[in-house]
Amino acid sequence: MRLTPGAGRDVDLGRVDLFDLDLYTSGDPHVIWDVMRAEAPLHHQILPDGREFWSVTRYDDVCRVLGDHQAFTSERGTVVTHLGEDDVAAGKLMTSTDPPRHTQVRRAIGTKLTVRAVASWQDRIRRAVVRFLESALDGGTWDLAEQVQRLPMIVAGPLLGIPERDWDELVELTAMVTAPSDPHYHQGSRAATLAIAHHELVTYVTQWVERRRAAGVEDGSLLDHLMGVRVADAPLTDEEIAYDGYSLLLGANVTTPHTVSGTVLALVEQPEQFEMARADLSLVPSLVEEGLRWTSAACNFMRYARNGTAIGGGTVPPGAAVVAWIGSANRDESRFADPHRFDITRRENSHVAFGFGPHYCIGAPLARTTLRIFFEELFQRIGAIDLAGEPQHLRSCFIAGMTHLPIVAQKRLRP
Ligand code: HEM
């Protein structure tokens, strides 16, 4: 998805199609969201097949939809690619569960993903990042977007307990789930791609659990932890373990790489920001936050209204699907000064790239640590980055990302 909007132009809100995938590969969604925030903060769209959804684009409304589980449930699905389909994992997968059950499950699973737990993995993460970056330094053209897809598995694979031989296949499968229409991942049809990937991922975790049980040894990994979690004095069911393992894999794999690509492209487009961060590594944490806001890799999440609910200056009917556009909220001018400017020194940056409320990203400490270490190591090794071709954007209205970002990275001459 284009992250720096082009010149403003007339937008006919009656004809806007937020499910048109061309918008995300070659269009300019930010120009449309700007107009929606100003003129139609609650927007209704009916798809040609009759499915319909409401959109909220303002920061406060996005927080309300994501955060108010009494009004907006997660139990009928939260991902736009499943609009109108009943979620088979409802009430079993943490993401598709409302409080109070959600709170209990999340608390139990989350003990392994706290800031403190992640801090203890820092050295391992740094070694993994260094290993990854070394391959970029041969002076040739490097397709960052393609290569960086492996980064989460290199970092989180050992933490999850997943052997290296399986990493590439899992990266491919998780990409298929999030962008089933992208030609890089498409297998037959969109529906077939989704079905194959879901099935393979759930089967992978199920078989992992069976093997671990048969071996009878614990390895302290995250998947192991899922097997030992107790909620209201009972273990998770095998189905819950499979779904939550799948969800952790998905969460880890599909967002961090696109945040890296989006941030690097912004730095290439604004070399003075690159220089500033390179000269002062204490700016890396705020660079990471700005990169998260700027990229908003999880472009939206969905909820269903339980009852007729007033929001965004209008009312959605009972049962309505409401899409909270995180990418738009993170450019809301009422919240962020000069929102379409990438600014690594931004002070007020309470972005919602990790969501808001009870489902706030459980992997945020891991993602933040990975991104911080990635950029610290990058700036210590690389003196300049040039584009070596046109970026290619992911064909998805759910994940804002790139499939190709060819760059040439020049080694830093002096420390
Ligand atoms: C830059 C990286 C990341 C971004 C932008 C991101 C974004 C998000 C967002 C917006 C949500 C909220 C979903 C909702 O409201 O329904 C979420 C939830 C979640 N994320 Fe992340 N995520 C990232 C990294 C990760 C990582 C590394 C993991 C795995 C370790 C992960 C696992 C999850 C899980 C399991 C949930 C569901 C939490 C719940 O339902 O309570 N994410 N993420």
Describe this protein's structure.
This protein has helices at residues 22-25, 29-39, 59-67, 101-110, 115-119, 122-134, 144-147, 151-160, 167-178, 190-215, 222-228, 238-269, 271-279, 284-295, 326-329, 364-381; strands at 42-46, 52-56, 72-73, 141-143, 230-231, 234-235, 300-305, 309-311, 314-316, 321-325, 382-387, 392-393, 402-404, 406-411. It is of the alpha+beta class and 415 residues long. It has one domain: Cytochrome P450 (Cytochrome p450, Orthogonal Bundle). A hairpin with a 5-residue loop joins strand 1 (42-46) and strand 2. Helix 6 packs antiparallel against helix 8 and helix 6 (122-134) packs across helix 16 (364-381). The model has no long low-confidence stretch (mean pLDDT 93).
Give a quick set of tags describing it.
415 residues, alpha+beta, Cytochrome p450, three-stranded antiparallel beta sheet, 16 helices, 45% helix, globular, binds protoporphyrin IX containing FE, monooxygenase, Cytochrome P450, Cyt_P450
Question: Which helices and strands occur, and which strands form pairs?
Answer:
Blueprint: H1 22-25, H2 29-39, E1 42-46, E2 52-56, H3 59-67, E3 72-73, H4 101-110, H5 115-119, H6 122-134, E4 141-143, H7 144-147, H8 151-160, H9 167-178, H10 190-215, H11 222-228, E5 230-231, E6 234-235, H12 238-269, H13 271-279, H14 284-295, E7 300-305, E8 309-311, E9 314-316, E10 321-325, H15 326-329, H16 364-381, E11 382-387, E12 392-393, E13 402-404, E14 406-411
Parallel strand pairs: 2-10
Antiparallel strand pairs: 1-2, 3-7, 4-14, 5-6, 7-10, 8-9, 11-14, 12-13
